[in-house]
Structure formats: C-alpha cells, structure tokens
From TrEMBL:
Organism: Flavobacterium indicum (strain DSM 17447 / CIP 109464 / GPTSA100-9)
Assigned GO CC terms: plasma membrane
Primary site of residence: membrane
InterPro entries linked to this entry: Poly_Biosynth_Transport, Polysacc_synth
Compartment(s) of residence: Cell membrane
Membrane topology: Multi-pass membrane protein
Pfam families, per the entry: Polysacc_synt
Superkingdom to which the source organism belongs: Bacteria
Lineage: Bacteria, Pseudomonadati, Bacteroidota, Flavobacteriia, Flavobacteriales
Name of the molecule in the record: Polysaccharide biosynthesis protein, putative O-antigen transporter
PANTHER family membership: O-ANTIGEN TRANSPORTER-RELATED (PTHR30250:SF11), PST FAMILY PREDICTED COLANIC ACID TRANSPORTER (PTHR30250)
Amino acid sequence: MISVDISKIKTQLLKLIHYGSGQFVNLIVPFLLSPYLILTCGESNFGKSAIGMTIAFFVIVFVDYGSDILGVKEVSQNRYNKALLNHTLSKIVYSKIAMAVLFAIIYYVTLFFVDSSSTDKPLYLWSGTIFLAQIINPLWFFQGLEDFKNFSLLTIVSKIFYVLFCFLLVKKESDFIYINLSYSLSVVISGFVAYKILKSKYEIEFVTIKKKELFNYFNKHKTFAFSQIFTWFQLYAPILIISFLGNAKLVGQFRLVDQIISVFRTYIMMSFNFIYPKVCYEINQTYNRAIKNWSLYNLINLSFVLLLLLLIYFFRVEIVKYYHVIEIKKIVSILAISLFYPIVFLLVNCFKQLFLALHFQKLFSIITIIMSSLTILSIYFSFPYFELAGVYYSSIFVELFTLIILIILSFKYKIIHTKK
C-alpha cells in the first residue's frame, strides 16, 4: 500500500518537473527578449506590437470557443477512450477552422478599408497570422491527457523559435511589424511537432464530424464562449483603453510592467492548466480526495508565488533599469502597486478550477461577464486621474471583489466541504 502511494507521489512529482521546465522557459523568455525589442524598436513601437497582439488574442477567443477549458475537461474525463479522444480532437479542430476562416474574412476585410498610407497597417496584417496559427495548436489536448512532458517540450520549441525569429527578423526600428509574425511562426512549427507526437504516441487521428454536430457544439457552449470574450477584456482591454485615452508611449510603459506581471499571470494560468484536468478527473473518482489535493496543490502554488513576488519587490529598481527605460522612478512605483494583482488573480483561479470542474460553467460565466465589464468601466474612469496606476488599482479591486463572491458561493453550495 505504501509503495503504491510512493509511486503516485513520484509520478506526480515527475509531471510537475516536466511541466515546470516548460514554464521556466515560458517565464524567462520575456525577460530575455523584451530589452532587445525595446532597444531595437523603441518603447512606442514595442507598444504598437502589443496592441496588434492584443487584437489577435481577442480573435483567438472566438477561434478557441472555450476549447482551452471545455476541450481539456472532455479529454481528461475520456483519456482512456481512444474513439472519444479522436472525436473530441476532430470536433474542436474543425470548429477552430470554421471560426478562423469566418473571422479572418472579417479581420482582413476591415483592414482593407484602413488608410493604406498608415505605417502600422503591415503590423496588423502580420498580427492576423497569430489567430490563424491557433488552428494547429493542440496544447489543450496534451493538457487534458496530463502529458506534461510533451506539453513542456512543445512550449520550449515554440519559445525557442519565437526568440530565433525575433532576432532574425527584427533588426531595426521599422522591423517592429515582424514581432507578431515571429510569434505565429513559432506556434505553427510547434503545432506540426505536436500533431506528429499525437499520431506516433497516441495513434490519434481525425474522424468525420457531421455539420449538425458542429452547429450543436457551437449552440451548446455559446454562453461559456461568450463569457470568454469578457475574460479577454479583463486581461487585455487595458492596452486598448490606454491606447485610446493615452498614447503609444504609455502603452509601451504599461507593456513593460505588464511583461513582468504577465510572467506571474502566465504561470498562474499554466498552473491552472496543470491542476484543472487533475481536479476534473479526481472529482469523478473520489470527491474528498479531490478537494484535499486541490487545497494542497494551490497552497504550495500560492507560497511559491508569494516568494517570487517578494523577490521582485526587493529588486524592483534593478529590474526596471534592466529594461533601459527613461522614466525609471515612475515605472518602479507602478510595478510596486501591480505586485498585489497576481495574489488575488491566483486565488480567483483556485476557485475557478472547482466551479468549472463541478459543472458551474453558467454561473461562472455570469460572474465573469459582470466582473469583466466592471474592470473595463473602472479602468476607463480611473485612468484620467491615476494613469497607469489606475489600471492596476481597478484590476486588483475587481479581482478581490470576484474572490469574495466566489468564497461566498462556495460556502452556499458547500463546494469545499468534504462529503460523507
């Protein structure tokens, strides 16, 4: 009995090491790449590339149609049924193709009517390749299988090629238009590697999906997919609001601070990817053990994040100087404020794991829509008074409010109570 427990611990530890290695690369790349891009292209052009990427990520919300959550859950619960795995992969990939084609037409037709003399137009032309590349990005499938060895391998391959393409294509100030192209090319390459692994290791293949079933899929999950739009607004709309109310330089400064905060945001979202399929699977097996493991995983995660945040706080001046910016004092102050955000963001994601695993998608979708709308409004009205600091004041306030609501609901529905 003891040997079995030790074996399980070793298995989980190995998965964590595999996953952690990929996330280490994922987290360190922005620190290595951003100073080069800022020095080469300037803060304003760096900010412009961030706007282009933000718009592309918005379209990805429609292309994915919630597959990063719904698909993971479906794969996790049917991981030993090859026929259902083939069916799930095919259904979601075909749905991605349909949505990508539809929104590519809308996106590029819209760009066609943009002033052709605009120097930024090529940036947005290349930015569109990001959401097209998402078609062949099956990381969600590996996540559902808890194959974190290949998940991390693909993450590392993608980041290596992203850095490589940036150094090859971005060599002067005007080359900022190729930053987002570099990103999409890296996704395409890792995507081809991913499908080769799925074919050789899991013998996964595409099957025929009827049009009616695709329409039913779109109709069934439209509320959840719609809520994901608001999740995007909560994460990425600040850049567009700053661009609208401020200027490209302010966007660049925000992007610089956000590069540091996004390291934590990315880590938290990726740790969600690690824990969520496990929670989905264990809840179907033994509820009490699932809650116990959920608490343990997230407590360890919170401790790790708090330690890193303390290190960032104590070395915040040195970190900002590393980016070769002009207004060091201003950005150091904003960075100090922003460090509270990852704490509440992580805690909200902890409860998100449980609510989604227990089929509270509709309830969570409503909360997401309301809170995302509140975030946008609070940023819009606070920015004229506090500028970039107002963005983080608003985000922290809304995440904290969301956390309180989720805690109240978890007690109401007895979600974190053990069952007899």
